[in-house]
Amino acid sequence: MEVRPKLIALLERTRVEEQAFVAQLTPPERDQVGKVNDWSAKDMIAHLAGWRLRMADQMAALSRGESKSDVEDLDAENALIWSEYCDRSWEEVVQASSLGHQRLMDGLQAMSVTDLHDADRFESQKGQPVWRSVAGNGCTHPMMHLAEAYAKCGQTARGTAMMESLSEGL
After folding, report:
1. Buried b (16+ CB within 10 A) or exposed e, 78-103
2. Which of 72, 81, 96, 142 is the most buried if burial means most Cβ atoms within 10 Å?
3. Residue 154: how many CA atoms within 13 Å on its side-chain side?
């Protein structure tokens, strides 16, 4: 069974959840300046955009027959993403988020069923099918950060319901 239609639905649902989170932010929350180890809402959205863009780049490289190495140090990569976006405006971060989502969707549509499903197709995937990486970077990872952000602002029930819905979809 091809997983692409379900994964597309999950990516869209994740995007809707992210947009709902963004919509409820106040202007001061959007303008808040974070730190490399203490993210603001803008930093979190930029972080998610950065990982989606990296996943889209990885999918494009795999489709071209190129091997893309795994990130060795997640903390260093997260700090790099933070530094890429920390001085950008809220609007630029929202645009990057939209671009990351679109490029991930385009990459998903462009990959063959075999490339998405075959766990042994790409050595750099270390025995995991590409669709799992897409689900991680495009759904699970964003939803975990969104749930954490909701918990920090006292909306734990909303974050929990969102994660339970994602779990059902996965």
Report:
1. beebbeebbeeebeebbebbeebbeb
2. 142
3. 0
pTM, two decimals, is 0.91
Residue among 115, 118, 126, 112 at smallest CA distance from 69: 126
Strand-pair partners of 38: 35
Rg (CA), the chain: 16
Region 87-95 average pLDDT: 95
Burial 15-28 (b: 16+ CB within 10 A, else e): bebbeebbeebeee
| CA pseudo-torsion sign 40, 46, 52, 55 | negative
Q: Flag whether pLDDT at 114 surpasses 90.
A: no
Separation CA 50–CA 148 (nearest Å): 18
Tens-digit pLDDT profile for residues 3-33: 899 999 999 999 999 999 999 999 999 989 8
Helix, strand, or coil (residue 3): coil
Q: How many CB atoms lie within 10 A of CB 110?
A: 12
- Residue 148 confidence (pLDDT) above 90: yes
Q: Which amino acid is at 158?
A: R
- Predicted confidence at residue 65, as pLDDT, reads 82
φ and ψ at residue 35, rounded to 5 degrees: -125, 165
